[in-house]
From TrEMBL, chain A:
One of its GO terms (biological process) is translation. PANTHER family: LARGE RIBOSOMAL SUBUNIT PROTEIN BL19M, RIBOSOMAL PROTEIN L19. It comes from the Bacteria. Keywords: Ribonucleoprotein, Ribosomal protein. One of its GO terms (molecular function) is structural constituent of ribosome. This protein is located at the 30S-50S ribosomal subunit interface and may play a role in the structure and function of the aminoacyl-tRNA binding site. The gene is rplS. Belongs to the bacterial ribosomal protein bL19 family. The keyword GTP-binding does not apply. PROSITE patterns: RIBOSOMAL_L19. InterPro entries: Ribosomal_bL19, Ribosomal_bL19_CS, Ribosomal_bL19_sf, Translation_prot_SH3-like_sf. HAMAP family: Ribosomal_bL19. The keyword Ribosomal protein applies. The lineage of its organism: Bacteria, Pseudomonadati, Spirochaetota, Spirochaetia, Spirochaetales. This is Large ribosomal subunit protein bL19.
Automatic annotation (TrEMBL), chain B:
GO terms for biological process: translation. SUPFAM superfamilies: Translation proteins. One of the primary rRNA binding proteins, it binds directly near the 3'-end of the 23S rRNA, where it nucleates assembly of the 50S subunit. One of its GO terms (molecular function) is structural constituent of ribosome. It comes from Candidatus Thalassospirochaeta sargassi. The keyword Kinase does not apply. It comes from the Bacteria. This is Large ribosomal subunit protein uL3. Coiled coil: none annotated. The lineage of its organism: Bacteria, Pseudomonadati, Spirochaetota, Spirochaetia, Spirochaetales. One of its GO terms (cellular component) is cytosolic large ribosomal subunit.
Amino acid sequence: MDLIKAIEAEQIKEEIADFNVGDTVKVHYKIVEGQTERVQVYEGLVIAINNASSRKTVTVRKISYGVGVERIFPIHSPKIDKIEVMRRGRVRRAKLYYIRDRVGKAAKVKELIRKKAK
Amino acid sequence: MLGLIGKKVGMTQVYDEQGTMTPVTVIKFEDNVVVGKRSVDKDGYEACVLGTVDKKAKKVTKPYGGQFPEGVEPKQFLYEMRDFDLETEIGTKYGVELFEELKFVDVIGTSKGKGYQGVMKRHGFGGGRKTHGSKFHRANGSTGMAAYPSRVIKGTKMPGRMGGERKTVQNLKIVRVDAEKQIILVKGAVPGTRDSVVLVRRAKKK
């Protein structure tokens, strides 16, 4: 099994933004259009993180033109340029699937206010 | 034929430069040593006997050890390669470097045992309806005609032991050859459990 871990370790990115479930993030991902490559930004709420070494994925949800959109990003993929944290959220569970059933203000996650390190 | 005896390590997924994910099986090789040769004059066919993984000296019986020429350690796993592509001599060692130019391989292994299985899983029968008054669910149905021939034809598909047999998967793409770790990654699944012995050979149909 160690061999498999070694293969996966090669693909794990070292610098990954430190974010948690409940945070609002901006995912910059590369798209290839014919010859050119450009970066698109997808902003939304992290509702789930699935850890599996190099196959770690993050589910990001946003409301786009009144329609709920969820995208799952493999964060160690070379297609992911970077992930920016916009806002920290205060949540009490690891998966925020309940957000899917809520509309408007009820679907909000409170901002996490952290004490400053002394 | 060109091939080596390896061990299935397990499965994972790898990204390529474009960011596409590929499911791969990792196969590890220890030194494959030529332990014998068969020739047309003596045996009626050309072949090269490959062996891998040293066998404990204590475990080697005299008849088993007797088949190995001098200077070659007794090996656990042996395979006769018919019409080996390379000119070889007894004692030559091969590693994954053999696969560097290949694009596709066939992998032969022993599939996982599934136990006693019904006809739907074992032979892919359709089965019947579950509801709407149906009384025919997963049974095999008719097994033949009546007064003539008054018996079941040999080879009729029926329930029974499934798996644990030699299986070949053809045309698996080689994703990566790692000479340092002596492993190769092939796209897709390979028969057998983890740590089971598999034979990897050049794809016959590519």
